[in-house]
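User: Please predict structures.

Assistant: First:
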Amino acid sequence: MLASYERALARRYLLPGRGEGFIFLVAVISLIAVALGVAALISVTSVMNGFRTELFERINGLNGDAVVQGFGGRLPDWQPLLEDIEATPGVTQAAPIIEQPLLASYRNRAEGVLLRGTRQEDLGLVPQVRDGVVAGRLADLYRGEEHRVAIGARLAEAMGATVGDTISLISPEGQTTPFGTTPRIVPYQVAAIFEVGIFEYDKAMVLMSLSDAQLYMRMGNDVGAITINTVDSARVDEILAPIPALLQGRGVMMDWRQMNGVLFQTLQIEQTVMFVIVGFIILVACFNILTSLIMLVRAKTKDIAILRTMGAGRAAIMRVFVTVGTLIGTAGTGLGVILGFGFLTFRQNVVDGIGTLTGVDLWDPSIRYLTELPARTDPVDVTVTVVAAIVLSFLATLYPAWKAANTDPVEVLRYE
């Protein structure tokens, strides 16, 4: 706790005195540096968290926490296996699917696509697709006898197709003739266009009913794989431990770590490295606080000596300068939090604005997977950033405050 005169001194030293404009300027620069460091750290950690979380949720939402893949791309007699998987404790959903890379064409335009056949009840449980419909209706895939598909938004743009148009799916595994294999070409009407937010899927995915996929791929009643979702993705290996024994040599199970583990591990390492690198900005800002306090102590040497002769103790002098430096760091930290959350609120506008001014696409979805700059703020990261900035600011005040407290009034005032 500070005495009343100590608080008065702290307030006085925070304002520029006569001939102390440069010291005040250094203090302001220190405050701004701390604010920028805190804002940068909050922004970077939030964007990295958002990127990792969004990518994880979207990819796992489409592909599940694990996939049981049949040998040779076929999983016969899959219904009993599906029931056993659904009965496994911790499994929330199991869905049979058929996936096959194909070629799609429309008006002399051709694109490589990934065909996925799925049941209506399973597709309705995938929020990335269900909530991402931008045109048409997914329910139309399962109505009537006409064959229909839903395609990704980027694929629709590339081909120039819209709802109601008819595209052709081309499979190289067609009918065998004496002159070779004839590709299998089947027309499908576009019933819906969706956008899941991952460029690779929006550019290539084609959805159809499971029965249509079985017919097109000539698989009879077989499926290609079963996707599995669990209550906890982090414990997927523990939850799905009984599944391999149920396969009986018909297939293999892979969880999300085996399919995408390297990607998410790389993102985690990158986030940690960025946290350390950007954290140096705060450290440098705290050195600025140290510099400004040293200059302030030198400018106030006579004042300190007079205070000492009037009875002010060393602890009181030290508390005054510690308070001054800590207030600068705390004010900078508070301003940094405001700037950080302000940037996160308008992050996409900032990215688009910079891109417009520079003529460079800073967020090309074909490179960065997601179509928009994501962000997810972790309260723990924000708390660590704020506490670290304040603690470093406090530590930066200790040496100047100690030097001020050890000022010898006899030596300073000898010739006054």
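Second:
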Amino acid sequence: MNKKTSENIEELYALGDELFRHPELGYKEFTNKRILTEYFEKHGLKVKGLGLRTAFKVTVREGSPRIGLIAELDAIPTLGHPFANKDDSNAAHSCGHSTQCAIMAYTLVQLKDLIKKGSVTVYFTPAEEFTDIAFREELIRKKEIKYIGGKVNMLTEGMFDEEDLFIHLHTMGKGNYHFSLNTSLCGFIYKQITFKGKASHAAVSPDQGINALNAFVLFDNAINMLRETFKEEDHVRIHGILAEGGQTVNSIPAKTVYECYVRSSSQETLRQVAEQVDQAAKYCAKAIGASASVRSIPGYLPMRQSRLINDVIKKNMLNFCKEEEIHDDELSMAAGDIGDLSCFKPTVQFGYSGFAGSCHGKDLCIVDKERAYLEPSEVVIETVRYLTENPEYVRRIKKEFQASLSKEDYIRYLEGK
């Protein structure tokens, strides 16, 4: 470990602890932004707001190559987590985003005096978790945002355009590996399906009602039957919650609401399965005289990793572990708006350890601060140093990268056209 990054380690851990104890949902991360702003100001770095309520960036140096770092600000509702924010839907950093922010903030401060060429910018992005939909749709109505996801808004507004490449990282949760890299992520579509029937007295006149809950149950069984038709290589998942099951026990349910994600590592399969879900809802409802309406919101796109960047990252990981302790080429069923960014810029997301419990679980906690904060910071620092000192390698990364869609096609996709 170089001397510079061994300084102020306790400050890094304290920053991480403070962020972990102040979870906030997407577009509400004002406390996290304040904590990070104070940290940067203490170290002589200027914060630049990017709109979207809480998005901001901090830059070290100017020039080429231009390296972008990504840190996600938001938490996710997690009932029962010891640091759940009772005033914000039990938001908790059970996905470890607070550690990303501490790592990247500390990394940038160290790089301030370490890099002599190029520039490095950390983008602190809001609202990665696709949740709190009603609140975000209200922001859309008010024209404060255009889309649900934070990076999605930032992409469509061109906030990432000037960077050559991006480095992101994410906790792996509890596991047997020290690091992971070259992990693929799935894409998903969010659906809200409303089944409508006819209310009637549940005991006296059930024959005069049309049970919307039964329509959902029939649909749910249809989805279970569809699962055996999915190809293993497409990594399809359909998972959801019954958001509303009826109005009162004493009445036949006139309305039920089901919310789900349809996921796949294949964008074409994702489209096909989403259509199957729509048809199943419509015809299962029709079979018992009910009706179904489906509302779809494009989620996030599958992740494309830049192996050339990960080659550098892996060399730096080996300073802390053996090669067999690196989980390489995993296909994860998870998704994130980092996948959207990877369609336009050479991008990586690597995993780091130091946690116990499960991601999105009430038991997620940090048990090894060196692994959870310092080691991934050192990996990013040394990777950025190499890239800024070897601009020809960055040019090769850019030359071998091909965007998977145009900005215009992306916006049409987001608009459902």
